[in-house]
Design goal:
Length: 281
């Protein structure tokens, strides 16, 4: 496994897409040196965006939270591209007006609200609600035993679309620990109910196309070859970006541990363009 310096790797690209968890932060907060790394990329004239399977809060709230952790603005809200935005577009255009049951923190209901629908927490739903959709937004903000079971039975008994707004299977926690993400919960519920859910986020090509379109608002003539995608997870970040045509960097600061990287790459057959310890090296 050939390791490279991230700064040298990024030199040949004008646009840098960074995953959030595992690249910029963990559950403990910003990774040491992440602010300096992003500041350095911007100083070098690069267009930097966060492209994340995160529907837990609005881009504005993401920017604010990062600023609090960094002690100053990391990136402005328009540089945060969330899978929740794609889910919101779908809900706006494909779901009729009405109540949408959701699993997640109250902040995650932002994506239902901007779609012009009425968010209702799963815990507040009962058999009399005339729901138009069910959305899995976040893995926090609810009672896992009570509300996951309530979601399961709601999906069984109500014939409405079920939308998974975050395709992540896991995300990094403290140290070398990981946690179950919304995508895993969606897969579990889909398997049990034998229903097909609508999913948004990496590795789906729609996420990368949306990010490229946003970058072209800044630099209209960029191509895929001008973009470097940085992620910590082979089966979402790297395979998705590879398939779409971006060069990729697998960083070993999140879901993929240094001692496991070789084996995971060989067993999966997913080969990143480059491998770096982190964006800070």
């Amino acid at each position: 496994m050939d390791m490279r310096s991230f700064r040298e790797t990024a030199e040949g690209y004008s646009v840098i897409f960074l995953d959030a968890y595992g690249v910029l932060k963990s559950a403990s907060g910003l990774i040491d040196g992440a602010l300096e790394a992003v500041t350095s990329m911007i100083a070098d004239g690069k267009e930097v965006f966060v492209v994340t399977n995160d529907s837990s809060r609005s881009p504005e709230a993401m920017a604010e939270r990062y600023a609090e952790q960094a002690g100053g603005e990391l990136l402005p809200p328009e540089r945060y591209i969330s899978s929740g935005l794609l889910a919101a577009q779908y809900i706006e255009h494909q779901i009729p007006y009405g109540k949408v049951a959701y699993l997640g923190k109250p902040e995650s209901a932002h994506y239902i609200e901007i779609a012009g629908k009425i968010p209702v927490p799963i815990a507040d739903c009962d058999g009399t609600d005339n729901l138009v959709a069910i959305v899995l937004l976040d893995d926090e903000g609810f009672d896992w035993f009570k509300d996951v079971n309530a979601t399961l039975n709601l999906i069984r008994h109500v014939n409405v679309p079920v939308i998974v707004a975050n395709a992540d299977i896991t995300y990094p926690m403290h140290g070398n620990e990981i946690a179950i993400a919304v995508g895993s919960l969606g897969t579990l519920l889909s398997d049990i109910t034998e229903k097909t859910f609508v999913r948004f986020g990496k590795p789906d090509s729609m996420m990368f196309a949306y990010a490229l379109a946003r970058a072209r608002e800044r630099i209209p003539d960029i191509t895929k070859r001008d973009v470097l995608f940085v992620g910590d997870t082979l089966r979402t970040d790297i395979i998705g970006a590879n398939t779409y045509g971006f060069d990729t960097v697998l960083v070993l600061s999140g879901n993929t541990l240094p001692e496991q990287a070789d084996l995971m790459i060989r067993s999966s057959g997913i080969i990143p363009t480059y491998i770096c310890d982190s964006i800070t090296t």
